[in-house]
Amino acid sequence: MLVPDPKVVRKLLTRYASLRIAQAEKERQETTRELDDVTYTLCVMMSAADIHEAVEKADALLLAAARPAETAAADADDEEGLRLAV
């Protein structure tokens, strides 16, 4: 199974959130169209039936992608247990 690039997923989630906010502030046809496009893309990318499932799966993917970075940072800690800024 193909796994989406976490960077792309993060950008889509950010765009989705921004469009939802813009739509809530003032409804516009072009915003609605773009929101529909981003929603569709997230659903397809995450193999989800609806946007709620897509966001849930995207969050899980981003969390899983962050874990290896946290593990690597923990391995690089010095003797005092200080973490490196990443």
Show the helix and strand layout:
Layout: H1 6-25, H2 29-45, H3 51-75
Helix pairs in contact: 1-2, 1-3, 2-3
Provide structural commentary.
α1 (6-25) runs antiparallel to α2 and α1 (6-25) crosses α3 (51-75). The model has no long low-confidence stretch (mean pLDDT 86). With 86 residues, the protein is an all-alpha fold. It has helices at 6-25, 29-45, 51-75. The chain contains three helices and no strands. The longest helix has 25 residues, at 51-75. The two termini are 30 Å apart.
What is the ordering of alpha helices and beta strands?
HHH
The Rg value, from CA coordinates, equals 17 Å
Low-confidence stretches: none
Major sheet: size, sense and barrel closure? none
How many helices in DSSP terms? 3
Structural class: mainly alpha
The CA-CA distance between the termini, in Å, is: 30 Å
Mean pLDDT score: 86
What general form does the structure show? elongated
Helix content: over 70%
Strand content: under 5%
Q: Tell me the total number of β-strands.
A: 0
